Amino acid sequence: MDLATFLIQCLNAIQYGLLLFLVASGLTLIFGIMGVINLAHGSFYMMGAYFAYGLAPFVAAWFGESFVLTLVLGLALAVLIGYALEWAFFSFLYRREHLQQVLMTYGLILVFEELRSILAGNDVHGVNAPAWLAGSIPLSDLMTYPVYRLFISAVCVATGLVLYVVIRQTRLGMMIRAGASNREMVQSLGINIRLLYRIVFAAGVGLAALAGMIAAPVSTVYPNMGSQVLIICFVVVVIGGIGSIRGALVASLLVGIVDTFGKVLFPEGAGVVVYLLMAVILLWRPEGLFRSG
Amino acid sequence: MKTMKRRPGMVMAGLATGLLLAAGGAGAQGAKVKVGFMLPYTGTYAALGNAIENGFRLYVQEQGGKLGGRELEYFKVDDESEPAKATDNVNKLVKRDQVDVLVGTVHSGVALGMAKVARETKTLMINPNAGADAVTGAMCAPNIFRTSFSNWQPGYAMGKVMAEKGHKRAVTLTWKYAAGDESVGGFREGFEAGGGKVQKDLTVPFPNVEFQALLTEIASLKPDAVYVFFAGGGAVKFVKDYAAAGLNKTIPLYGAGFLTDGTLEAQGDAAQGLLTTLHYADGLTNAKEKTFRAGYMAAYKAEPDVYAMQGYDAGQLLGAGLAAVKGDVKNQAPLIAAMEKATIDSPRGPFTMSKAHNPVQDIYLRKVEGKQNKVVNVAIKGLADPARGCKM
Amino acid sequence: MRFRFARLPMAFALFALVALAALPWLATPYMVDLTTKIMIMAIFALSLELLVGGTGLVSFGHAAYFGVAAYAAALLAPKYDAASLPLLFAIAVLAAGAYALVVGALVLRTRGIYFIMVTLAFAQMAYYIFHDTKVGGGSDGVYLNIKPELTILGWKPFNLDNGLHFYFFTLVLLAAVFVFLTLLLRSRFGCALAGIRVNETRMRAAGFPTYSYKLAAFVLAGMLAGVAGFLFAAKDGFVNPELLSWHQSGAVLLMVILGGAGRLHGAVVGAFALTLLQEAFASEAIFGSFAKHWQLLLGATIILAVALLPEGLTGVADEIRAWRLRRRDAGQSAGATDA
Predict the structure, then answer these.
(1) Which domain holds residue C189?
(2) Number of domains within chain C
(3) Angle at B79 (CA atoms; ends B208, B357), nearest 5 degrees
(4) Alpha-carbon dihedral of residues A136, A139, A141, A146, nearest 10 degrees?
(5) pLDDT tens for residues B147-180?
(6) Residue C315: inside a domain
(7) Taking CB atoms and an 8 Å cutoff, what residues of chain B touch A270?
(8) What is the model's pTM?
(9) For chain B, which chains pass the contact test of at least 3 CB pairs under 8 Å?
């Protein structure tokens, strides 16, 4: 592998890692702060992708074609749905064991998958990237790099920064951090923990849906797309340390690198490498790279 | 179409014998033929399962709801494309519903599980899609037929086409699973027989769709051409990624037909001009294709695809067998003999059954134009699968 | 605990045993076949219950041991002769146990959700080894064409090719595993496991080598899953990498949870309930054309079950009893104030 190819592979690795981060950040929030094992997180990613596909014609008909407006509308819708779901299904799960959450969120996956089938059918659909992001940049004599992929990375980095600032610098972030480490304490300070959880959950759903919408033009939209993302996101969250946004970022990039180079260097074992990475890291640090905080 | 003309007489004969036997206490004659669809109705392949069922039903409707003079009764099981449940699901049809004929399925792993049960219970099985070579190879049996293709067939044809186009060095890329390996294996045979050389075989873990690393690898290998095997969502994403990486301008991409079947709406501009090989194409001009297309449009308000066509031919093949035994599906030896001898007047063009019960058929070279896979020419005429491992 | 385990499960177990033994005379061959498969899944679920309910270890990779045993049976059976049943059985179970020993020795260093995920990681590795390499025929899987036979001095007590014989063979194994686990959980070893589940630190302080206890439970659970895997391979004669997939690990975990973790009979009830519910929802005879939306019905039922039955299906009896106790207490205290 020459240097130029190596550098391009690094770019691929980072780009894939950042996209994983966007999905995984929502999962780690819900997981770390509320202690809910949410198997349905992949479904929220799928929901986002189908929003990008399904809302675009509506937006085009009413306001003229606008990718950004579709994103904003889809995000708002996802946050609303997340808020409602928390109220309807998750709010009574906090006192229950993890196992109950596994069972319930599995039920939700089935319901979401079937609703998707009824509402949007079972065909594969493409989503067009907006015209202003459709170009590409030459990388080597043969290869070019699509601008849209750079845009994805930019959105991921921006979202990561916003999350960091919100959690580290704002009052809401302080409450979230406190709620993660000691629920009773926060409650006794007179903070409405139920509302707090509802907000965190809605934000987590929003992040997953945002990832789905952003990824839709490159990943396309198809049945069962959520379950593929789900497992890899759990890997990321656990490697990074549950509840740690910073950990999720480092772990995403790590998984991106290992996956990218694994495919090229060890094609026979490419399926195994990511899980091998997780096993090695957890045997070395049984609570992930960064403990929640 | 001979069967059509003979039908009224046969119905009468069937009715007469039915009445006689019913009077004698044996109700089997004249009973409905039970057809069991074991197809994916949920999950990634749900659209394919529905198309196959629609195609099959269309043929039966065209025959007035009867094959060989008998009415058909349908049973359905959702196989979920889940091999771990394959045996249970096929048992629902064979043991619970006691069907006479199994029609299925899409997923190769599930089809192999089905084939095992069909072999053991001697239930007639028609496979309308799954391409696993073994179904009409090592697992072949007198009662197992296929109306689609073996993974080897389109691959071999494309190897020949690419060698003829003067490509010397090719890279292959597929998901790391049996169907991909078999397709690439067929390609290698055809390509190397024509004087080409496979430079490297690349794979992606199934069902991973992150291709960027391998596109970079292809760019650094600089082959004359690339052969890929992907289907469904993976096919859409690969074709778009290949174009977005600019590789389509310098290294021509070829594939087995599933790369561009049922996916063109989603692939959009990225797929334009792609060459693929398959046993079906848009723009075929035979008469059967025209009536099939019109009939399907009228019945389902949708364009038929290759899967619908394969389902339709499964209906035709069964019809040919049942006609020979006047609908007596239990009379298996002559039924099978008739299916083996039948020339199916398929929308893809007529085909016959090989010794191992896989279609001997023309493989078309197709080019993507707009939303269609337009036929360019016949890549190989009457191509038969080598049926390795079949002892029949 | 004693109150729960003592009487009700025994009555349940006896009743279930009688019902299952009588089933072949009451049901269609298809129902017998289906019940055989459910009983295999029940053994599988019981093996996981030893970890989840017995020891407090939630494994999300339990299908690996099931699948390893199934592959061992299919790959090591001679191609054209019937294998010796006891030999093949022992090999399959030991193969599963050996893999569980290696994995367990490593993963028991972690706990909680991390444990869940590492077990998944090791199962996925095993899955990809069978899926991507040629050891077991790749993603197409392998066949076990001739069922193993038991021959004692030339006498064959039963023939697994006969569905009824296979049914009773499975039933006997299910009953044996159930009795074995019941006794095990009541033994000193089982009590130590329960202690670890409740408070591992205290158990360690009390001088128990908790790691060894957990490892022993993990290997035992792997071997019992191997029993189920062996039966699966012998019954279907078709082994596929999907047997090791996380869907399968998830399905068996669902059975344990749905039935009610913490009760052995919960695993059995869960296996029956989940399979039969799906069977019913996907049946066109019952739901007509809506049957193709079976996922919706199954999903909604699961959600309802979680909402209404926090203790799982078998927890209902406990909850009724608790409710009665509460009412009686309330009645007594009301009586007391009257007087």
Answers:
(1) 2-247
(2) 1
(3) 95
(4) -20
(5) 999 999 999 999 999 999 999 999 999 998 889 9
(6) no
(7) 176, 203-205, 208
(8) 0.88
(9) A, C
